[in-house]
TrEMBL record:
Pfam families xrefs: Gram_pos_anchor, SpaA
Gram-positive cocci surface proteins LPxTG domain mapped to chain residues: 445-480
Lineage: Bacteria, Bacillati, Bacillota, Clostridia, Lachnospirales
Keyword annotations of the record: Cell wall, Membrane, Peptidoglycan-anchor, Secreted, Signal, Transmembrane, Transmembrane helix
Top-rank lineage group of the source organism: Bacteria
Name of the protein: LPXTG cell wall anchor domain-containing protein
Signal peptide: 1-26
TM region positions: 450-473
């Protein structure tokens, strides 16, 4: 009997211990561990904040916090067995309703592209990357951490996961030649970098991902078919896509990259070429994403390249403008050795020659300011020498003076204004090299022909005739 009592007591103790353990385990496990995956590398080290927007009260009811009530209304009734879900529309509405001073309920640091939250209570949460200053825009992230158990009570899910969803808000863009030239259609290479967006599987917009660019002051270097070849690189992939150029711009369709989100948040680069046609060359690049559709205001990225402009001014010796003078442009290629600029009909530089007779002259004429000037453009402003930018120098030489004026024999330097830097990118920047020539009148020599000569001749003959007559008259008189 004693043995039976001991067995019963032991069994009761075991049951009590198990019951207590179950209660403890239930209490301990009634929270959610949530992971947010797929953050891009640039997000590592940033903090993700969690804001609880719904919780379960003591009466097993879902309660939504005040700031989210107008945005999130998907609270089931007591007899509703439909799982609580969070739609994309809910997420957008919550993002719009969110206030910066909202209390943070939990935080996690992004490490190797993952943010992990432990101990989240049953309910629903809104997540936001704090103080992110990169060129990405993270979509609203929301998660439900509550389910109904077999007894109809709300309990926390044991685990939940999300994928970070981001879209590029501004692309990065660089060029390989800020100081370009129009000689031989020298090419400028542009590189654009952005991030492949995460696109929801049920996204209804037609244009989900595309690169758009528009060039001013230049033209894209197209292939034999008139299309622009663009090198597209992401992950281990490098491929060439050809696109039509329309009105100095293009739109490259990239929908194929976001069909299954296999490359979401990966860095992608685009490389393509253009040529300079003016003194300032720039283009505006941006991406189309589900959140940024055609017709929206885009935060574009613009980079500049420049060609130099050379201007010569002609004056007379009283500093009045003098039209009709002709000049050629030179560059030094050795000791006392020059090459001469060859220009097109618009005075754009197309090449150089060592034969001065083949150089293209520019002719002075009055400009809008009343000055007699001539100009040409397309000159290389600076070159990199031993890792340093060195500004180039060009010269003017007068080859023909206006009628009644002398040629100024000097060869004058036209130094560019401003300073050169690989970092500058200003809409107001322009590089102009100027020179000024002053001519003098031709020396007026005495007139040696015409009526003056005739008078002197007649007078001389008359004097000689008179002298001869006097001579013969005197001789005749003496002989008598």
């Amino acid at each position: 009997m004693k043995r039976i009592r001991k067995i019963v007591a032991l069994a009761l103790a075991t049951v009590m211990m198990m019951a207590m353990s179950i209660t403890a385990f239930a209490a301990e496990n009634n929270t959610t561990t949530l992971t947010i995956n797929n953050f891009p590398t640039v997000a590592n080290g940033y903090t993700v904040n969690a804001y609880q927007i719904a919780s379960v009260d003591e009466n097993n009811q879902i309660q939504v916090v005040d700031w989210a009530k107008d945005a999130y209304k998907a609270v089931p009734t007591d007899d509703d067995t439909t799982p609580i879900e969070m739609t994309a529309a809910d997420a957008k509405a919550l993002a719009a309703a969110f206030k910066a001073d909202t209390t943070v309920d939990a935080s996690a640091t992004i490490t190797n592209g993952v943010a992990t939250f432990s101990g989240l209570k049953a309910g629903a949460y809104f997540f936001k990357v704090a103080n992110f200053d990169g060129d990405l825009e993270f979509n609203a992230m929301v998660a439900v951490t509550v389910v109904k158990d077999a007894n109809g009570n709300y309990v926390a899910k044991s685990t939940e996961s999300l994928s970070a969803k981001s879209e590029p808000k501004k692309v990065k863009k660089t060029e390989d030649d800020k100081y370009a030239s129009t000689v031989n259609e020298k090419e400028i290479t542009y590189t654009v970098e952005t991030t492949i967006p995460y696109v929801k599987s049920n996204e209804i917009v037609t244009k989900k991902f595309a690169l758009v660019d528009h060039i001013t002051g230049g033209a894209y270097s197209v292939n034999a078919d008139g299309k622009l070849d663009i090198t597209v690189a992401y992950g281990d992939v490098s491929e060439t896509k050809s696109v039509d150029v329309v009105d100095n711009g293009f739109e490259l369709d990239l929908n194929y990259l976001v069909e299954d989100n296999a490359h979401a948040n990966e860095v992608i680069t685009f490389t393509y070429k253009a040529i300079a046609l003016d003194v300032k060359i720039y283009n505006d690049a941006y991406t189309i994403t589900p959140s940024h559709q055609p017709g929206d205001d885009f935060d574009t990225t613009r980079v500049y390249s420049y060609t130099g402009k050379l201007v010569v001014e002609k004056l007379d010796d009283e500093e009045n403008p003098l039209e009709g003078a002709e000049f050629v442009i030179l560059k030094k290629v050795g000791e006392d050795k020059y090459e001469y600029a060859v220009l097109d009909s618009n005075n754009k530089l197309t090449g150089w020659t060592d034969d001065e007779t083949k150089a293209t002259p520019i002719v002075t004429a009055k400009d809008a300011n009343g000055k007699a000037t001539a100009s040409a453009f397309g000159f290389d402003v600076a070159d990199e020498v031993n890792g340093q930018l060195v500004m180039n120098t060009y010269f003017f030489k007068e080859t023909k003076a206006p009628e009644t004026w002398t040629i100024n024999p000097q060869i004058k330097e036209a130094a560019f204004n401003g300073t050169v830097s690989l970092d500058q990118a200003s809409a107001d920047e322009e590089f102009v090299g100027e020179a000024q020539f002053i001519d003098s009148k031709l020396v007026q020599l005495p007139f040696t022909g015409g009526m003056g000569t005739t008078i002197f001749t007649v007078l001389g003959v008359a004097i000689m005739a008179i002298a001869a007559a006097l001579f013969f008259a005197t001789k005749r008189k003496a002989s008598k």
